[in-house]
């Protein structure tokens, strides 16, 4: 069984820092530092004072407008809070690197998830399509490959209660909830001793999740591949969610290298959620045709659709690579399900021999046969940053080290 690290220590430190620097407890500014004479209207003078107790700095500004002096306190806490929240995230997850794997059903098997965990990240295994018995088997398979913490991903738009109970019975470290907002699911998972991650598409959802007891929210931007819950881009969504909640926020969508990870961290994220980049890992269980398309694709080669690949999962917006199926559908006027070209046409077969029909929500596996190019080839807009196949461990390490370097030297840019 995986050990659950005690949480809350750095969270307490963050709350102490906020209380120490809250407007109600503002430090008095020494008179020696105050301007002796009024300045011109709308002029500013700033002074940065050290607050060692809170491990941060405070910036005071005096604003002169219409000849009347008013004092305004400006809090320079964002970067310090980001550092504390990242430490919070790592303590909660029991991980060494704030990088989580996206739960890509079909593509992310035990070897990929274990690779992320063993590289210091946090793996999220997609078991929501499985029966409770198979959920237990999936957990056991993963535990045979890693002794690190991981989470099980559950889809709230499908029956999930029995799978959640299986996770609790097995004592997994965490559960990742997506595609819906069910406070009762969060409450049950917390009561069962699990760490709870909840995927959101807007700040309002993040607040609901946090109020229900979620430990972490995953802010999934519109750039993401696969099924996409919201319609806000990552660069706009992450700071909105960060400002809305007091728990760690993980950025998802468009994260494929250290540059995008560093950018997300500067927006206030405590960590990142990587999907598309890991599709091009040695451990990803996808067809070679799919992998080749990923390596050749540009940032403009994906398409967001509301209901293109809706067979088996209706009313679930998604992003995938443009292919022959999507082009013919668009040329025919992007018609609704039931009126699309070649519906119900068998275009291939699963390794089990079951048919794959056009417009089916299906990740082509290595042994899938047929017109693989015409199937749902999930990918995010960050696909343009993928140009080689690497091991999962190498991908995690490269992203982490590049982001670390950029964040260390980024202040010299301005």
Alpha-carbon Rg, integer: 24 Å
Report the strand count. Answer: 17
Work out the helix count: 13
Structural class: alpha/beta
Biggest sheet, strands in spatial order? Answer: 4-12-11-9-8-7-6-5
**Overall geometric form:** globular
Mean pLDDT value:
84
Largest sheet: 8 strands, parallel
> Termini distance?
48 Å
The percent range for strand residues is 15-25%
SSE succession: HEEEHEHEHEHEHEHEEHEHEHHEEHEEEH
Describe this structure in words.
The radius of gyration is 24 Å and the shape is globular. By secondary structure, it is an alpha/beta fold. The chain has an eight-stranded parallel sheet with strand order 4-12-11-9-8-7-6-5. A three-stranded antiparallel sheet has the order 1-2-3, with no helix packed on it. The protein has a three-stranded antiparallel sheet with strand order 10-14-13, with no helix packed on it. 33% of the residues lie in helices and 20% in strands. It has 13 helices and 17 strands. Helix 1 packs antiparallel against helix 2, helix 4 runs parallel beside helix 5 and helix 7 runs parallel beside helix 8. The N terminus is likely disordered. A hairpin with a 4-residue loop joins strand 1 and strand 2.
